[in-house]
Prior knowledge:
- By secondary structure, this protein is α+β, with helices and mostly antiparallel strands.
- The chain has 2 domains: 3-189, Aminohydrolase, N-terminal nucleophile (Ntn) domain (Glutamine Phosphoribosylpyrophosphate, subunit 1, domain 1), CATH 3.60.20; 204-446 and 501-531, 3-Layer(aba) Sandwich (Rossmann fold).
- Helix content is 39%, strand content 18%.
- It has a 6-stranded antiparallel beta sheet with strand order 2-3-1-9-8-10. Strands 4-5-6-7-11-12 form a 6-stranded antiparallel beta sheet, with helices on one face. A 5-stranded parallel beta sheet has the order 15-14-13-16-17, with helices on both faces.
Amino acid sequence: MCGIVGYIGDIDDDIHARLQAAFGRHPHRGPDHAAWARLDEQTAFGFQRLTIRGLGDAGNQPLWSDDGRDALICNGEVYNEAALYRRLGVAKPPGASDCAVILPMIRGFGIQRTCELLDAEFAFLYHDGATHRTYAARDPIGIRPLFYGVARLGGGMIFGSEVKFLAEVCDEVRPFPPGHLFDGERFVQYRDIAEVAAPIRDDEPTTCATIERLLVAAVRKRLVADVRVGFLLSGGLDSSLVCAIAAREVRAPIETFAVGMLEDAIDVKYAEIVARHIGSHHHNVFVTKQQALDALDEVIFHLETWDITTIRASVGMYLICKYIKHSTDIKVLLTGEVSDELFGYKYTDYAPSAAAFQHEAQKRLRELHVYDVLRADRCIAAHSLEARVPFGDLELVSYVMALDPERKLNTTNLGKAVLRRAFAGKDYLPDSILLREKAAFSDAMGHSLVDSIKDHATRAYTEADVRQARSRFPHAPPFTKESLLYREIFERHFPGRGALIPAYWMPNKEWEHCDVSDPSARVLPNYGASGE
Length: 532
């Protein structure tokens, strides 16, 4: 996890100075090393490093080509660097970071083919010193953040890892689209990870064996680091599988962390069951109502969103990462995000057809970079930690998205059935976890989390305030007191930038039982035992 920023075009000295200063004020993404480089009269790169692999100075950025012509800054992890060096026919330079392979790859294969060949999470800027052209690119899911805007003076293009890096110098800031590259003039899509070229109709045993193999490989490759690795464990299916696989892959007990409300934690008891089963060194972190309320301002500042469910789910994640930062020397955290988009949410139990389920999964996957993946990145990076997301592995995502959607429908009154069957009977997890009903993270922390925030918003606002907010915030206007609370905090930090988020994350209102006014699964008829 690192922070990057780049300026391309006629550089106004005032804008350049303000951009550099804004970048320097927010070093949380990379506190271990910082650099600012003027590459030529029209290009400047800034980099903040969080050292994870290749801990020596050779991993500091910008990285330069062997002849000193081209430069690269990259926030990423490249998992297939060994295969790429073999393709290039050269050895990895001693002490080089995993991202260093991108430089010779672009020189040898061009930027588009390089992006297509990377098994990686990345956001990078590459400057070709021969043509004086600068390129940008982002991974197909958008696991690593990247934004862009046009400088208020000078008209140069500015790219950065977070909105707060650019807000002072750009009138409008937009998310860089995942699966795209910028070639110096226009955006080009190199991959749509949600699109299925040819459906896969494997039989049940093959499907289950493939899902197990791919997820195990995804976890294994994300354990590679030169620093300590930890695991967020909610006790739900997804994070529990990640932890169970990791526990089999390493010799020493892994470090797992769970968070819950002091008054009524739900997840913690399930996390403890998993921890005992896999033999992890487990930590529980409990949060009071007041601590949750006090954290809202910081959480929204780091998230750069006003979305209800993103903020709810971020409070606990932010606070547990804060604990990990200050109480351990762990720098990498594996999480369970992206599984819901592949295998289904609670509300997708109501998908009217297999085709509808598939269309919804594609929509959710294409939006991940402004919802769940945004949450995981910002909550973890806020505390100078790196997030790794095994369910976001490109090969796994491609396979599951291409599966016949009939296999992913809930026909057994228990969602994610194909994922559960892939790991059944192999002692990864006890049945009480493998067969546990899905519970959203913000709910399973304890219902008192959301209830206390709603109570606070009710005391702060009237129904008239909510009605007036519709004209104050015409884009995705707040519709509850809670959503108005979040929007006003967001606007204090990022005034006039509400369009960064396209809409409130909500279930598909066109489906039976899903036309609801709250994103929580608690309002759905099938919530059932999820809150127990």
